[in-house]
Amino acid sequence: xxxxxxxxxxxxxxxxxxxxxxxxxxxxxxxxxxxxxxxxxxxxxxxxxxxxxxxxxxxxxxxxxxxxxxxxxxxxxxxxxxxxxxxxxxxxxxxxxxxxxxxxxxxxxxxxxxxxxxxxxxxxxxxxxxxxxxxx
Length: 136
Hints:
Number of helices: 5
Strand content: under 5%
Largest sheet: none
CATH topology of the largest domain: Chorismate Mutase Domain, subunit A
Order of helices and strands: HHHHH
Number of domains: 2
CATH superfamily of the largest domain: Chorismate mutase
Number of strands: 0
């Protein structure tokens, strides 16, 4: 490699490093600015976050929301488990020459949810059946 070629290669490398450094610096500054904005906008009192008018009510609401979040996580896990079991049933039914969906069984599920939860239960059962149907 000649001196001119080496110098040109060094200049190109230096330029590339400088460009990458500028991009990284800009990205870091942008991230820092966004974090600062987020901190500024998310600094709310407990009563503002919960909509409560007193600190006592806000404490009750915060605790109850944490419990609801934990329940939601469990419900999601159970729905995912139901989907997996449903896939096993569908697999067995199809492999034996049957249809993917058993409408009489779905009607039983709809009735069960409707009896327990009323009209919203029927809607919930429909959603569950939709999630579990045809996952194979």
